[in-house]
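ok so for the tutorial part 2 we go from a plain amino acid sequence to predicted structure tokens. step 1 is just haveing the sequence, like this:
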Amino acid sequence: MPVTGFMEEYRSLVEEVVVDAIDHRELWIDDARHDNSGWKLTVNKRNMQVFRKKTQSVPHDATSSSLFTFLTVGYLSTTIEDLHTSLYAATSKDDQILHSLLLDKEFLTSQVLAVLDDIALPSLDPDLPDFLGIKYIKLRMPGSRLGVNPRESVYVEYLTLREDNILVKVVHSIDNFLPPHTDGGVIHRATLRDVWLFVPAPNGKIQVVARTFHDMKGSAPKYFSDQSALSFWRVYDKLTSMSYVRRLLAMPHGALRGSLSSLTQSQPITRGSIRRAVSQTRTHCQCCKRKFTLFHSKRFMCTHCSAVVCSNCHVPINYSVQKSVHPIPHDKVHVAAMESHKDLVCLVCIHRSKETFQDFDRVEAPKDGEDIWEAALQSKLPHTTTHAAYKPRASELELRLSKEDQPPVEPFTPHHQSTGRPSDDPNVFDEMRKSIAIQESILSAMRASWHGTTEQEMYVQKQSSKYKSRASEYTFERDSDRFEEIE
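step 2 — the prediction. this is what the tokens look like for a chain of 487 residues:
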């Protein structure tokens, strides 16, 4: 796409936003935590705080002076590489998958209108490329059931890696690239001003500082703008696992299929063959070895490795992509038809995706009758050692019904009685003590049902009534370890 003067202005604009955010990051945090600064704490969770402040300098296209600017400060247990994998979307399909996973039901459609990497600065890390482009998004508002119309936005997105391994994402709405659409009902053009910073912290986590301003336009209450799914604090928890899901969806479907079933091998590997027939001959889950019974008979087949697993050993992944395989014209992006998909991924594939993408490609599918945890262990994946070493213990009934030769039964003779077999095993006394403790707890519960309380509870109540904690001690116990600070 030819570079115009407007595009050069876009690049200069986002570059200034990145530099300003990095230089004033600590000043933003100190100002938000100051009592007389005008910021108000609205969300206070473990490792996350959200402040809001009424916008002083309202953009020229804003419709209300009472809109809020939000500042999110917190920590994520992830890495810069995983965050880059989660947020990097250079194609329309990747962008649709990303937003459908983050925004869930509020996502309608999105497109990458132009890629401006030619005028962007080179990335500091070749493995983590920068992205500069123009995107379009259309989303459903929280009050859609009350008649609130959808909102759309055309914006410049800039994802870059800076010095000190700081990852920055900038979203800035523009109005002079794509004119508003006149068909398709009343759709208001929203204004987005977002900047996300991910900074490695000394505690081993990633410090997050996100400053966002959203004006959804129209006559909808500003509450819907604040509660929009685009708000960073609503997608905060999804970023830690987004990289694993993105790696799984980037794999070609059926790439890890082995010889688990001749039926699955006979069918073509296409997106339409995701929901293929599940083998009903499998009697145990290939992940947890749990036996399929009358009350636990539902089987699921992994989309990637064709393993038959139970309901506890798979994770459904719901996302949406456009139906058309051809690029959508710019004047039709707002009415692009979307198609929903649901992938079923077993826990083994999820653990494999935690490795690098190249290691995930080299993992071979398990063979017929082979434990998939052992197959992952043979592939030298360190995270599966604990699972592979675990073997479910066969019950006494299964041992009796098995066709293997059982050891001969030794009669209990007076010689065994004189030698005292229980004394040879000191664990027998531990089992006896546990049995006595269980019986005492049962008797205590029975007394409680008769008299309303137990002797232990009466003793605890008497002791606790003597020592009453002061208000300051209670406040410290409640608020300590609420938020981790950086020294």
